[in-house]
Amino acid sequence: GLFVTDYFTRTPRKLSPFRSFASIELFHFHIPEDTVIAVWNLITFKEQGGTFGDQCPDRSITVYFRSGAPSVINPLHTHFPRDTAVPGSFALTLTWTLPNRTTGVFNVTSPLPGDWFLAAHLPKDEGKISVKGLYEECQYLFQPQLIVQRLVNIAVLYPGHVTEQSMAPHNRSCLYKVFVPSYTSRVLVEVLRCRGAEGCPLWLRVRAKAPPLHNSTTLDCREHTPCQLAQDLPFWQHWYYVLVEKHPGVPGTVSFQVTVQLTDCSRPSLARPPFLPSSASMNMPHSFGSAGGLALGDSPPPTSPNDTKHPVPIPVTLHAGERCWPVRPTLRNELDTFSVHFYIFFGPNVSVPPDRPAVFVINLLPVLDSGGVLNLELRLNVSSLCGENVTVFGCLNHGVPLTSGDNTSVTCETESLAGFLLSVNATASLSRLRIPYPQTGSWYLSLRSLCATEHGFEPCTNVTAEVYLRAYLSPCINDCGIYGQCKLLRTNNYLYAACECKAGWNGWGCTDNAEAFSYGFQLLSTLLLCLSNVMFVPPVAIAVRSHYLLEAAVYIFTMFFSTFYHACDQPGIVVFCIMEYDVLQFCDFLGSLMSVWVTVIAMARLQPIVKQASVLYLLGAMLLSMALQMDRHGLWNLLGPSLFALGIMAVAWTARTIRRRHCYPPTWKRWAFYLCPGALIAAAAVLLYAFVETEENYFYIHSIWHLLIAGSVGFLLPPRAKPSRRLGPLPRRKGCGYQLCVNEQEELGLVDPAVASINSICTS
Q: 524 versus 317: which is more confidently predicted?
């Protein structure tokens, strides 16, 4: 055949350590139909400071693959919530082959067409809290690329028609495909009039949705006469691929005929006619996922191929050879993103008669609905059982309805289908099922009532069970509970939801309490973080006593907002917020930086040098507010103002030292008992904040940070300025033709005005 190669790539993204599904990087691809091979080229490289990260440690990268919906992963081996079905996926771990780059290749032969999702993450780290910009962080970037090779012009088989084929010696196989419309109960593929050098040296393989593989349903035509391969309960509205493969080493040409018969659900003993005016029988999809179409009469009314019909009850075959039962559609009501309710006509109470099942269809839209959670709830009305030991079984299957034909062993699986089983009875009248990230398309729920006897389950007589049925789509499981937050995430144009847990809780729905914080621990951490701010009371008292009223006001502001910010920032249930979280965080950060600023400016003692030193306080407040609005967690938001204030203090102290020709501050006691201890305490606080703090020790390390910072302020704040006893030069002021000689000490309010004398009144 003729092959066409397509190439797809995605932008590199930075990977994060795994904490929850919200921390993974998700990539969305689309594989076209008739693809025979898909090759993913997985490129990973390190970066540090804008260059190659040769010095970065090697960290393993795990990549997950799944068709139809994102992978439901559990690398931490946590517990899933009750009644949760976990769909499978394939995982691959990449190892480093070069110091700063590695490449992995993942091949999929005959992949399923449609949406494919890749999820990648780094291993879980120790949760260190690092200051942004303190050092160049190692970044691990991941870029997947997809190369697909697909066949074009694959021969299409029409039901009831015979296709002649001759396989030349250099050819090994022939590939065909046939479209299976809705309400088809059986697909029968047959090889006729096979002639070769050694009888019929052919293999017959059949597979749904994609070309067959070595492990697909296979039949050896040498050993079976006639060469017929049947598929019961095929997937509706999908292509089935037929591969006729020649045995290796067979010489000469092999000729044969291939035909396909599709059995109509409403007429199990009859095949579909070769030509019907219905679009479904023309091997072309016209309403994917809908329950439309007619199969009750001998022949449907003529319609055009492009007609779209509304869902109507249609008979289906639940098991090969059984009767057909109607499929009841559901009404889709979209409330919000991933918030969809499926209502049943004349529901939600459903009657399940004893002689036939009740079948319902739930249609999930492609791409739009695969990022949420499909929820199903069955509640049995016990009063409707009339005292009988009745059990209602439900089978939820994707693509085709299914119920068990064996009354002794109830199951929802066959050789080619796997479904989910639910059951309710008088003892357990409630059953739930949750499917995270469900595959899109049509989901069929088949309800069947059976009575329990000594010999197993048997059909009931004259008992119609009543069941309350609820089906809906939600973003997360139980909205992640009280210890989690349901986040709506986006990758390119694809939306999905995931839980982000807190307070030590883990799991897909934040229900795993193996590492959860107890209530006492949460209360203790909250009290430590809040009450440690009381350490600012001594600096406030020292500032008021020394007449540093502006500094005292800033310390009170910091103490107040730091207390209530940490009361609102707690991950558990011990939370108290007096304002919006963002307002409290901004005020806490601003108060902390302003405390450093005003303390250092006060230590500089600029009042005798700069008369309007309050300008620096106002300037600092405005600049800090601007910096926090730009980047609240940046390193230079803390270092920039601090270094600038320290520079002002150094200039002021140097000027005093040069003018007085003596070191400033002049006394060794000030250095030994105040400045050095205060500087050491502040340095210890900064080291703890920058290098020791992690998520596990945050509550007590950060509390120690509060204590040390407040304690250092008490040491570093300068004492009250003493009045000078020496009368300095008197400045002269001119007024009304006189030169007034004014005493400077009287102007400063440092001496009694009655004692001070006017030295001279000079006439102009």
A: 524
Of 703, 591, 690, 609, the residue nearest 651 (C-alpha): 609
Domains in the chain: ranges and CATH:
2-152 (2.60.120), 155-264 (2.60.120.380), 327-397+418-473 (2.60.120.680), 519-716 (1.20.1070)
Buried b (16+ CB within 10 A) or exposed e, 380-390: beeebbeebeb
pLDDT computed for residue 760 by the predictor:
40
CA atoms of 462 and 84, how far apart (whole Å): 34
Cis peptide before 348 (omega within 30 of 0): yes
DSSP labels, 184-220 = EEEEEEEEEEEEBTTB--EEEEEEESS---TTSEEEE
For β-strands 101-109 and 217-220, DSSP reports them as unpaired
HSE, CB side, 13 Å, CA atoms: give it for residue 262.
Answer: 28
Query: Is the pLDDT score of 725 beyond 80?
Result: no
Q: Three-state DSSP class for 298?
A: coil
- HEC sequence for 449-498: EEEEECCEEEECCCCCEEEEEEEEEECCHHHHCCCEEEEEEEECCEEEEE
Predicted confidence band of residue 327 (pLDDT cuts 50, 70, 90): confident
Whole-model pTM: value is 0.79
The structure tokens listed for 360 are 């319902």
Rounded to the nearest 10 degrees, the angle between the axes of helix 581-604 and helix 614-630 is 140
Question: How is the beta sheet containing 254-264 ordered, strand by strand?
Answer: 162-167, 254-264, 184-195, 227-232
Q: For the chain, how many residues are written?
A: 764
CA contacts within 13 A on the Cβ side of 81: 20
Contacts of 10-13 with CB under 8 Å at 24 or more apart are 10/143, 10/144, 10/145, 11/143, 12/43, 12/45, 12/141, 12/142, 12/143, 13/141, 13/142, 13/143
Instruction: Give the pLDDT score at 404.
Output: 53
β-pair partners for 143: 43
Q: Which residues of 439-475 are buried (b: 16+ CB within 10 A; e: fewer)?
A: bbbbbbbbbbbbbeeeeebeebeebebbbbbbbbbbb
In DSSP terms, which residues pair with 93 in a beta bridge?
A: 62
Return the amino acid letter for 41: N
Q: Are 196 and 160 in contact (CB under 8 A)?
A: no
| pLDDT tens-digit series, residues 663-712 | 888 888 888 888 899 999 999 988 888 888 888 888 889 999 999 999 99
Q: What is the pLDDT of residues 274-309, one digit of tens each?
A: 444 333 333 333 222 333 332 323 333 333 333 333
For 202, 248, 254, 322, the CA distances from 199, given in Å and listed in that order, are 9, 14, 9, 37
Q: 440-449, 594-603, 641-650: which has the minimum mean pLDDT?
A: 641-650
Asked whether residue 575 carries a pLDDT value surpassing 50, the answer given is yes
Rounded to whole angstroms, how far apart are CA atoms 308 and 319? 28
Cα separation of 2 and 152, whole Å? 6
298 and 266 in contact (C-beta within 8 Å)?
no
Burial 402-430 (b: 16+ CB within 10 A, else e): bbbeeeeebebebeebebbebebbeeebe
- Closest to 328 in 3D by CA, of 304, 301, 303, 352: 352
Distance CA 381, CA 430 (A): 10
In the DSSP assignment, the letter for residue 269 is T
Angle between the N-to-C axes of helices 698-716 and 581-604, in degrees from 0 to 180, rounded to the nearest 10: 30
**Which pLDDT belongs to residue 493?**
84
Q: Which residues pair with 256 in a beta bridge?
A: 165
Contact 393, 450 (CB under 8 A): yes
3-class secondary structure, 63: strand
